[in-house]
């Protein structure tokens, strides 16, 4: 029974951490209270802000007794932004929390042994790791705001510097900020609402980790913006690494950031970067992993788990632009990549060609349909790699994999809950989970990636 009242303050003992990093308290009656910003072992004061039948949310007001792993968040807008939900605890604790989350999911959802989950592979420097930033541009009470949306709103938290983004992006945004003010460029978001008179929607900056090449994208609600020549001169004079400045046209009143129409204002229509020894072209709409250091760790682990000798045929389901496919091609006889997004497959074919990879073939379509078609034509894989979106694999694909009976499955996941569900399904179809390796792709946040090795039980 719920004994808590909305908008009243209570004292709580924090017993554990939730999947988003929030502290979890229980009343004597077993009623659950989630308190963002609180840590296990702390005594806190919180105001109840949301009440449901079986749980409620509290707003942290005061930490009465601190946990030894609490630290002062280095970001000045940490509380308002909400993006880095774990910045108030040590990095060592963050890695442990992520391992525990994966253990909890594969145990409770998948019914598997939690000891299969290895310690999280973290970063030597867990800041300034992102190679892409996308910042909304708005006006709040007559003042220009460039930063990130506050949680569950279109109110922009002004962020002159973001500690998980590349430092070059901070410098570029500072130049654009002055240019907007000087030329009276109209932001698209005004007091949390879309403006019909608005011109500039977002600023996107991408930087090649190994090439140092920089792309700047102005996302606009109109096909032209005043004074872009002036901005180009300022940006290129200040930063010689800028190789591409693009105007992206997005007139739709939508939360989707990029439109489909690009105009090159300066330089090339792409920049390049490397993952391992492979070179990739990156356009404004290209998907490319945002943490290049940990991407090599993740893909290296996937290649290790695949256990290739040069004689194997490999299926790469949800292959995207072919990044994992190219990694696998180094040690496979043949790789077949499948992806539903046509432009991604075009990029994958181009990436294979640019890297002189001739043992990878790519198909457009749903992995759930294309892979069974390949199997019906007599193409069978020794190893299957899946890297699905957050919702996990389609059941038809899991059934097709089970029927084909490859020796090994390597599952790359961005969501431990759907991962655990899918592992349980595959275990019912003749596979045994060997090990689960969490990789910290997004330090300071609650997100976690995993690489899993499954073997066929004969």
Which residues sit in consecutive blocks of at least 5 with pLDDT less than 50? none
Tell me what portion of residues adopts beta-strand conformation. Answer: 25-35%
CATH homologous superfamily grouping of the largest domain: Vaccinia Virus protein VP39
Task: Please give the CATH architecture of the largest domain.
Answer: 3-Layer(aba) Sandwich
Main pleated sheet: 9 strands, mixed
What is the CATH fold-level name of the largest domain? Rossmann fold
Mean pLDDT: 94
Describe the structure.
The chain has helices at residues 78-81, 91-108, 167-183, 228-238, 292-306, 323-329, 342-354, 367-376, 395-404, 416-428; strands at 9-17, 23-26, 32-35, 43-51, 55-65, 132-140, 143-149, 156-158, 189-190, 193-194, 200-207, 214-220, 242-249, 261-267, 271-275, 278-282, 313-317, 334-339, 360-364, 383-386, 408-413, 431-439, 449-456. A hairpin with a 2-residue loop joins β9 and β10. The protein has 3 domains: 9-70, Nucleic acid-binding proteins (OB fold (Dihydrolipoamide Acetyltransferase, E2P)), CATH 2.40.50; 98-124 and 291-456, Vaccinia Virus protein VP39 (Rossmann fold), CATH 3.40.50.150; 132-282, Beta Barrel (OB fold (Dihydrolipoamide Acetyltransferase, E2P)), CATH 2.40.50.1070. The termini are far apart. It is 26% helix and 31% strand.
